[in-house]
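re: that chain from earlier
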Amino acid sequence: DISGEVLRWEIATAVAGSIMKLNPFNQPDVEASKIRTKELTNKYGQGQMYSPTPKISEDDLSIYVDDQYHVQLLQMTAEEVSLRSYLKAYFNNLNAGDYFCISAFIDMSDEHLLILQKLRMLIRDHKKVATSLGFGPRFLHSTGQAHKGGPNTGVFLQITADHPIDLEIPNHQLSFGVVIDAQAQGDHDVLVDRSRRVIRIHSGTDVTRNLSHLYELTKKILEAP
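^ sequence. v structure.
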């Protein structure tokens, strides 16, 4: 029975890949994010940590976005620029036929999963689009190729956080937190290279509280008349 299920989903993946016009037998775009991650970790090992500047910082949440998409979102913001107005413009960028993806490079705890699933379903129900949720870096090996090599219909919310407890990797000038951050940034950079609509929201150390705040703020935005 297990072998039968493996065969079933291998065929389903090949068929879906064909319909979506992406290669189900290779992952060149996932490989691109791995290469970018390695570049970032090598630079860190040489004392050159990559530190982008957030576009908005408010309530222990910071938004990072590439300059081109930032300008586009600002043009859609009729109000004074704030976390709320910026997110409103971002969610208004979701159109019919798009899909929304949450890529969370944070601890996959029950609390975090519950809040992010609520956020995903909130956006699904209000915007009437397909949604997905994946925890990084593991999702890179399942849906990562579709994100970067499939149709350009995705709107991506990447979530990262501080590392209050971090461990050094033996025999390397790196910590596990640095590797996670580099994987997130590598994925973000390749999404930008593929002209995807992506923002990154970075949380301070109280991730559960900040995720709850993000959910409540999103709820107010989507439910506003």
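The longest strand covers residues 154-161.
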